[in-house]
Amino acid sequence: MSSNAVKKSDQDLSCAEEIQATGREFEIYSKRFSGVEEAARAVTWEVLCREFFQQFISSRDFVIDIGAGDGHFIRNIKARRRLAVDLSPHVLELKKYGIEVMNIPAGEIAG
Predict the structure, then answer these.
(1) DSSP class of residue 109?
(2) Burial zone of 84 (CB within 10 Å; 0-12 exposed, 13-18 middle, 19+ buried)
(3) Gap between the Cα atoms of 108 and 3, Å rounded
(4) One digit per residue, pLDDT tens: the chain, 111 residues?
(5) In angstroms, how far is the first alpha carbon of the chain from the final one?
(6) Residue 81: enclosing H or E segment and its boundaries?
(7) Which among 84, 79, 108 has a CA at the least distance from the CA of 95?
(8) For residue 59, which phi and psi values (nearest 5 degrees)?
(9) How many CB atoms lie within 10 A of CB 75?
(10) Which of 107, 101, 105, 83 is nearest to 25 (CA)?
(11) Vertex 43, ends 96 and 21: CA angle to 5°?
(12) Helices and strands of the chain, counted as H and E runs
């Protein structure tokens, strides 16, 4: 078998796995990190946003986080308007932080 055939097969497997995971994001990501690791991620994003990213974003800006996931970035950014876009329904949780949400595939934003 040629190396191209192996690479093609690997790509097909990745697509198949991705299709099987669609709609199961919350289940998958809720088990991805332990409580300690999740707390460390939260603190890391808080520091990154406050100490680095925020310098590029003014309080008058509109920030769109495409592929927002659990929202660690968008929750820690101060802006006039914040929008989180993600395919997974868990993005809806971000509404309680005053963040606008679009629960759609990123490719449908302009649609």
Answers:
(1) S
(2) buried
(3) 35
(4) 444 444 444 444 455 565 555 667 667 767 788 889 989 999 999 999 999 999 999 999 999 999 998 899 999 999 999 999 999 888 999 999 999 999 999 888 876
(5) 42
(6) strand 81-85
(7) 84
(8) -70, -10
(9) 21
(10) 105
(11) 65
(12) 4, 3
- Which tokens in the block code for residue 42? 């939260």
Residue 4, both tokens:
């191209």
Sequence-distant (6+) residues with CB within 8 A of 41 are 33, 72
pLDDT of residue 96: 97
From the list 68, 61, 58, the residue with the least C-alpha distance to 90 is 68
Matching residue, tokens 């991805």: 32
Residue at 11: amino acid letter: Q
Q: Tell me, what's the pLDDT at 25?
A: 67
pLDDT value of position 22: 63
